[in-house]
Write a structure and sequence with these properties.
This protein is α/β, with parallel strands linked by helices. It has two domains: 40-179 and 228-314, Rossmann fold; 186-226, no CATH class. 40% of the residues lie in helices and 21% in strands. It has helices spanning 12-34, 88-97, 122-140, 154-161, 191-204, 218-226, 229-235, 254-267, 292-314, and strands spanning 38-49, 52-63, 70-75, 101-105, 143-152, 167-173, 206-209, 214-217, 239-243, 272-273. The strands form two sheets. Strands 1-2-4-3-5-6-9-10 form an eight-stranded mixed β-sheet, with helices on both faces. It is globular, with a radius of gyration of 24 Å.
Length: 316
């Protein structure tokens, strides 16, 4: 027969799990209250085309109360818009929580732009990036001495061709960075077809792209023909992040991927290489399977890794 004992249960055993949960929630709330408040604004900013003024539709994000915040310029791809396929707003919000301002504009002929697509040129987009940086410096006190660039696809090529000593860090998402006219392989996969597009544009001033629903101007194709993104990457010694996706071969060749990664390593041997981490993603970094959870995982991974890269590069 077992000896009966009178054991009094300590009421703290019942309270401790609840107290631990409350402490955890309080800690999370404390951290959140320390983060800067994210402000967002839809704006029109002034830029120029051949000396003539134009207005750009833009979205700006900044951390409220942070003085001289670093600045990131967000560059969408061909026939895209300042939403960046849904990636720019979440990325910008996270950057603002890290104390970093950002801005995205609709490039000529894209999004809410009131210009024709024939105004879409590398020179025009670079002018728009400068205008966006000036706006953020004047209106929100952004520090253009700590400047980051993010670009997707043709926006990635734009970023690559805009690299300079003034650019502290750059993130390239599936950049169209092959040499010369090979950079428009997303318009035509054959060298003969790409050359024909250029010749038609030279003769007519522009060429229609029915599959894309736009007409590109001669200047854009001439700029592409003489540009060398790989060389720009080799000469750049700031911080780099490069990503490519499993869906890229539909638009970008393996030659483009290999050339870009090799050039990036020559410019920044410690560059952040995300190649291979997005095998289940489309060129626009959505799930190939169209599964909602997988799609969210891909988006979060791309945006979080890019935000942390820029935080570490711009705040040190």
């Amino acid at each position: 027969m077992k000896k009966q004992t009178n054991q009094t249960r300590n009421p703290l055993h019942l309270l401790l799990p609840g107290l631990a949960l409350l402490l955890l929630l309080a800690a999370i709330l404390a951290v959140r209250t320390l983060l800067p408040r994210v402000r967002q604004e839809e704006v029109l900013i002034a830029s120029q085309r051949s000396g003539q003024p134009v207005e750009l539709h833009a979205t700006a994000w900044w951390p409220e109360g942070v003085r001289h915040a670093p600045l990131v310029l967000l560059c969408h791809g061909f026939t895209g818009n300042r939403q960046g396929d849904g990636h720019f707003a979440p990325l910008a919000a996270r950057l603002a929580e890290y104390g970093i301002a950002s801005i995205a504009v609709d490039f000529p002929g894209n999004g809410e732009s009131e210009e024709p697509f024939t105004a879409y040129t590398i020179e025009a987009m670079q002018s728009d990036l400068r205008a966006a940086a000036v706006y953020m410096a004047q209106q929100h006190g952004a520090d253009t001495g700590r400047l980051g660039l993010v670009g997707h696809s043709m926006g990635g090529r734009l970023v690559t061709l805009s690299l300079s000593e003034q650019v502290t860090a750059a993130a390239l998402w599936s950049p169209a960075d092959n040499t010369g006219l090979d950079g428009i392989e997303f318009l035509d996969h054959t060298a003969e077809g790409r050359q024909a597009l250029l010749e038609t544009a030279r003769a007519q001033g522009s060429v229609a792209l029915p599959q894309w629903g736009v007409t590109v101007g001669r200047d854009f194709l001439e700029e592409m023909a003489v540009s060398d993104p790989a060389q720009a990457l080799r000469q750049y010694h700031g911080r780099l992040l490069v990503a490519f996706s499993g869906g890229d071969p539909e638009l970008l060749s393996q030659q483009t991927i290999d050339l870009t990664l090799q050039a990036a390593a020559q410019g920044d041997p410690d560059f952040v290489n995300l190649y291979g981490l997005f095998e289940n993603a489309t060129h626009n970094y959505n799930a190939i399977s169209q599964d909602a959870q997988e799609n969210q995982d891909i988006c979060t991974r791309l945006e979080e890794q890019t935000a942390r890269f820029l935080r570490d590069a711009l705040r040190r």
